[in-house]
Amino acid sequence: MRKIVADSSSNLYEYPGLPYDYASLQITVDDRNFTDAAGLDLVEMVDALEHTKKHSSTACPATGDWLAKYEGADEIFAITISAKLSGSYESAKMAEREYLEEHPDRKIWVIDSRMTGPGMRMIMEKINELSDKGCNFEEIREGVIKYLENVKLCFLLASVNNLANAGRLSKIIAKAIGVLDIKMLGRAKEGVIDAFGKFRGQARAIKETFVEMMNNGYNGGKVRIDHVLNLASAEKLKEYIVEKFPDADIVIDTCKGLCSYYAERNGYIVGYEVR
């Protein structure tokens, strides 16, 4: 059996019609723990994050979590959030070594997506597409490596408090951004967060997201938009895209636990193809 396994930063808890499973990340807010899994009350988690006055953090899946998801499969494609942002990749690799020691005849490829959320799902879609064409394990691997050259990720952060809590941004800067209603735009670059613009107000930030996509070579390819409790902004971005590219393949979905922790309420993450 061929199977896809991802960590929960993929924002996907189920993939109908495909052997799929996920390893959950954990979000801690003060003394409360939220598991990024089906059944998570996202509104409750986001509310808790906005009202915490102490501490919040995240934790990647343990090696045993990954190992449990590999069980029963002969060919496994494991997809993780960028290795430069989380220990999830290393946990998945350790599980790979343990699994192959027990099952040396099986195959595993742990993929450092160098992205998160919708970018990870676009990798899944490519694996599924190549599998449906009858490609073998190595052919799928080669196809995905080539495909990744044409996948980009950008995002809008409506707040940067949790980035600051995670030690990825100065808390002084985070407070100033919140007071001034500044939205931060960023991109995944070499697997790390690259902030490239700060704009006053949501409307300007949405428009600049589309400008960023165009500047990076977007030409009507696939787009996947995940939002944090903010369907209106995702729909507005879609309007910009379809106005210029009416036949674009666009899917809007929701951020789950881990991605909502970083993007925060009203933020969104966009995966897109370039030519």
Account of the protein in words:
This protein has 275 residues and is α/β, with parallel strands linked by helices. The chain is 40% helix and 27% strand. It has two domains: 2-149, 3-Layer(aba) Sandwich (Rossmann fold), CATH 3.40.50.10170; 150-273, Hypothetical Protein Tm841, Chain: A,domain 3 (2-Layer Sandwich), CATH 3.30.1180. The chain has helices at residues 42-51, 63-70, 88-102, 117-132, 137-147, 161-165, 171-179, 202-215, 231-244, 257-263, and strands at residues 2-7, 20-23, 26-29, 32-35, 56-59, 75-80, 107-112, 151-157, 182-189, 192-200, 223-227, 250-254, 268-273. The model has no long low-confidence stretch (mean pLDDT 91). The strands form three sheets. Strands 10-9-8-13-11-12 form a six-stranded mixed β-sheet, sandwiched between helices.
